[in-house]
């Protein structure tokens, strides 16, 4: 009972922090709308037509997209770190970023236009397809009959990711006029987020979050080693497939709407594990909430640091993520 109250308290505090960060995020932008005005518009529907448009069509979709992209990357990081039993693993360790970047670059280079509900989804669609193709190749290389070696998976992910990275460099060489657009996508941004982006990322997130909760016990056992987990009656190979499918889908959907945003999936689970332990029953919800808070906070910084210029959010996550991770790596005293 005490553990339940403690877990509920931790999750409640993080959720309240997330709500405050969300409200603050909606106030930030070229048009200054104070937080009390934002609350009045959202809850009571007051305000001018222009203010409602700015909040409901620009800032709220952006904030919600940031929440679910951050939460998705953090969830993928938790699952992959459990799979590899290594805190250095993150959603891009299998080369998913290179596949997504290549797909997006192809869409931009050839000017492919696919319109759904008045919104262009060509870059998102091609980024998703590129990421899925890349992870499929990695999986086919790594599997041996019915056995999937995590070492082969990691090495093949690095190799195939470098191959796709090479293709991306070739595309950049030939994309004279589009190179700025491609680089802007590769650096990651939430600036063009619409409700379409929200719908793309939110459904896969909740589906695989539920799956992750059901796998909490198995993930805990996997941390003890594959042989120990097998002795506990866990189908290791099936668990690996579920984790691979889940992380691939979550990450692909997330990067397709935001571009490449690094270090959230690496640092957030690492911090959560240090603060709250390695039990996935608490690690999963805490990491998800911390991931949402972290990405939304960095997006706010991206808008506030050099106004009116908006920095790519991927640059901010790297700028703060690298020193934080190195500090934790040196100072934290814990075993994975």
From TrEMBL:
One of its GO terms (molecular function) is transmembrane transporter activity. It holds the Pfam family FecCD. GO terms for biological process: siderophore-iron import into cell. One of its GO terms (cellular component) is plasma membrane. The chain crosses the membrane at residues 63-84, 91-116, 122-141, 153-175, 195-215, 249-276, 282-302, 309-329. It is a multi-pass membrane protein. It is found in: Cell membrane. Keywords: Cell membrane, Membrane, Transmembrane, Transmembrane helix, Transport. InterPro entries: ABC_BtuC-like, ABC_transptr_permease_BtuC. Belongs to the binding-protein-dependent transport system permease family. FecCD subfamily. This is Iron ABC transporter permease. It comes from Candidatus Altarchaeum hamiconexum. The lineage of its organism: Archaea, Candidatus Altarchaeota, Candidatus Altiarchaeia, Candidatus Altarchaeales, Candidatus Altarchaeaceae.
């Amino acid at each position: 009972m005490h553990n339940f109250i403690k877990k509920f308290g931790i999750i409640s505090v993080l959720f309240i922090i997330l709500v405050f960060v969300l409200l603050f995020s909606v106030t930030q932008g070229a048009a200054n709308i104070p937080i009390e005005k934002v609350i009045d518009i959202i809850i009571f529907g007051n305000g001018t037509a222009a203010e409602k448009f700015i909040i409901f069509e620009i800032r709220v979709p952006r904030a919600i997209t940031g929440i679910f992209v951050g939460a998705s990357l953090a969830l993928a990081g938790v699952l992959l770190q459990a799979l590899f039993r290594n805190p250095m693993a993150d959603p891009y360790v299998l080369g998913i970023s290179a596949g997504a970047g290549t797909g997006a670059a192809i869409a931009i280079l050839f000017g492919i236009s696919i319109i759904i509900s008045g919104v262009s989804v060509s870059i998102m669609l091609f980024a998703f397809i590129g990421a899925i193709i890349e992870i499929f190749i990695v999986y086919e290389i790594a599997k041996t009959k019915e056995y999937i070696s995590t070492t082969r998976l990691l090495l093949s992910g690095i190799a195939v990711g470098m191959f796709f990275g090479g293709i991306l460099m070739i595309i950049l060489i030939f994309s004279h006029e589009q190179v700025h657009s491609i680089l802007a996508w590769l650096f990651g941004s939430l600036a063009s987020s619409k409700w379409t982006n929200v719908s793309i990322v939110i459904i896969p997130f909740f589906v695989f979050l539920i799956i992750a909760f059901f796998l909490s016990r198995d993930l805990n056992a996997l941390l003890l080693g594959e042989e120990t987990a097998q002795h506990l009656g866990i189908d290791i190979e099936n668990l690996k497939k579920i984790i691979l499918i889940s992380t691939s889908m979550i990450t692909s959907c997330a990067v397709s709407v935001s571009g490449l945003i690094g270090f959230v999936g690496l640092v957030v689970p690492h911090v959560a594990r240090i603060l709250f332990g390695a039990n996935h029953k608490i690690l999963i919800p805490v990491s998800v909430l911390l991931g949402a808070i972290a990405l939304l906070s960095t997006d706010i910084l991206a808008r506030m640091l050099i106004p009116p210029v908006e920095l790519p959010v991927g640059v901010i996550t790297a700028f703060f993520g690298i020193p934080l991770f190195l500090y934790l790596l040196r100072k934290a005293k814990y075993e994975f």
